[in-house]
From TrEMBL:
Originating species: Synechococcus elongatus PCC 11802
Keyword field: DNA recombination, DNA-binding
Residues in Tyr recombinase domain copies: 18-206
Protein name: Site-specific integrase
Lineage, uppermost ranks: Bacteria, Bacillati, Cyanobacteriota, Cyanophyceae, Synechococcales
UniProt-recorded Gene Ontology molecular function terms: DNA binding
Gene3D superfamilies: Intergrase catalytic core
Length: 208
């Protein structure tokens, strides 16, 4: 079943300006399914809140409450505190993690959401997981998926944030609203960030 899903995915655009590949919602869900449980949750938070993975890995359990996630000024790139609403798919995933251990698809790794302290502890059990560690696992997972198709070529830790912004844009969400979600300071910065296909630009002209 999963093999059929992988083969049925169209290859996304690999950006030639050095930006991370933007994935479709279907591709994001498949990638999440294949990531180990702890990394899956980190990636899901990054996607559903359009956050940078570095901000996600610095989260503490206390930052998630009342249907929101608070990214503090100490961890955000802009040095401002940002509050993200938790959408339904992420709320359901968090609920699964709270109920008990979540297994990976190979069933050899588990993860339970901690009630306090760092959400994503590193191997030493004292500090948060590093971005380099997360990136290594993400790359191995994408390499595995690319054995069936090359749909995940160009994916990086930034793909989750970029995929979220691009998906919202393609669904017609105004740029101002997307910027509120992503935390971009200016619309011009956000526009450079979006993955716009040539055919989308062509269709836009036809609307004039």
């Amino acid at each position: 079943m999963v093999e059929e899903q992988r083969k049925g995915l169209a290859m996304p655009k690999v950006n030639r300006s050095g930006q991370a590949t933007a994935l479709s919602p279907e591709q994001v869900r498949l990638l999440l399914d294949y990531l180990p449980p702890k990394h899956r949750l980190a990636a899901a938070i990054a996607y559903y809140t359009a956050a940078r993975i570095g901000e996600v890995l610095q989260l503490r359990a206390e930052a998630i409450a009342a249907g929101e996630i608070v990214f503090t000024c100490q961890t955000t790139k802009t040095k401002t505190t940002r509050t993200a609403r938790i959408p339904t798919p992420l709320a359901e995933l968090l609920s699964d993690y709270r109920r008990g251990s979540v297994y990976g698809w190979h069933h050899h790794q588990t993860y339970t959401l901690p009630r306090k302290g760092w959400l994503f502890l590193g191997a030493d059990g004292k500090r948060p997981m590093s971005r380099r560690t997360f990136d290594a696992v993400l790359r191995r997972t994408c390499d595995s998926l690319n054995l069936a198709s090359d749909a995940f070529v160009g994916v990086s830790t930034h793909s989750f944030r970029r995929s979220a912004a691009t998906t919202l844009h393609r669904k017609g969400v105004p740029l101002q609203a997307i910027a509120r979600v992503t935390g971009h300071a200016t619309l011009s910065a956000l526009q450079r960030y979006l993955d716009v296909h040539a055919e989308e630009a062509a269709r836009a002209v036809e609307l004039l």
